[in-house]
Amino acid sequence: MTGNQPEALRVIAINGSLRPAGYTARALEIALAGAREVGAETRLINLTDYELVFCDGRRREDYPEGVHRLQAEVQQAQGVILGTPEYHGSFSGVLKNALDLMGFDEFEGKMWGLVGVAGGSMGALNALNSLRTVGRALHAWVVPEQVSIAQAWRVFDEHGRLLDDDLRQRLMDVGRQVARFAYLHSARQMREFLRLWEEAPENPGGG
């Protein structure tokens, strides 16, 4: 992205753990740093701040204020990074409930990045694969890069600092990809691309 970017790009990360200072939040903060590196405004969303109720099928307007506040935060973002611990081979219940409280209005056409955290050696691949399925159902674009952190207690120290530099770069790459693809996918940038394409001179080597 360049300095003459026409409007601010916003990337949020949704923490699917109820521990705001846990490993998942730490990993998401690093991914958001990657998004900021390429010019995005960022925010980490901790679901504990919204007092969410269970999704029970009522009309959207009948949910409490905290649900509407979360919906509005997500609607204003062009990119979303979802982070989750892996529980019993899938992503967390609190993240599932948050996603169920939203829908196409919040996610259709948005760029998604995925980060999974696990205590075991197998990592969080099952959780990430499940989230990719959810992303497709919501018509979101899930970027290819994702990070599965195995044995998180080994790669973070007691102060929450990540000890693995390669893993740090991979997390930042998730944020970078979400920001870059969201920028390129914006309607204004797509129109500008098509305008430049149409004005481009003919290929002298063409048939």
Shape: globular
Helical run tally: 8
Counted beta strands: 5
Strand arrangement, largest sheet? Answer: 2-1-3-4-5
* Estimated share of beta-strand residues: 15-25%
CATH fold type: Rossmann fold
Poorly predicted ranges: 1-6
Q: How is the biggest beta sheet arranged? A: 5 strands, parallel
- How far apart are the first and last residues' alpha carbons, in Å? 34 Å
Helix content: 40-55%
CATH class category label: Alpha Beta
Secondary-structure class: alpha/beta
Q: Could you give the order of the helices and strands?
A: EHEHEHHEHEHHH
- How many discrete structural domains? 1
pLDDT averaged over residues = 91
Topology (SSEs and partners):
Blueprint: E1 10-15, H1 23-37, E2 41-46, H2 65-75, E3 79-85, H3 93-100, H4 104-107, E4 111-117, H5 125-137, E5 141-149, H6 152-155, H7 165-185, H8 187-199
Parallel strand pairs: 1-2, 1-3, 3-4, 4-5
Helix pairs in contact: 1-7
List keywords for this structure.
five-stranded parallel beta sheet, 43% helix, 207 residues, Rossmann fold, globular, alpha/beta, disordered N terminus
Task: Characterise the protein shown here.
The protein is globular and about 55 Å long. The two termini are 34 Å apart. The protein has a 5-stranded parallel β-sheet, with helices on both faces. Residues 1-6 have low confidence and may be disordered. It is built from 8 helices and 5 strands, in the order βαβαβααβαβααα. With 207 residues, it is an alpha/beta fold. The chain has a single domain, classed as Rossmann fold.
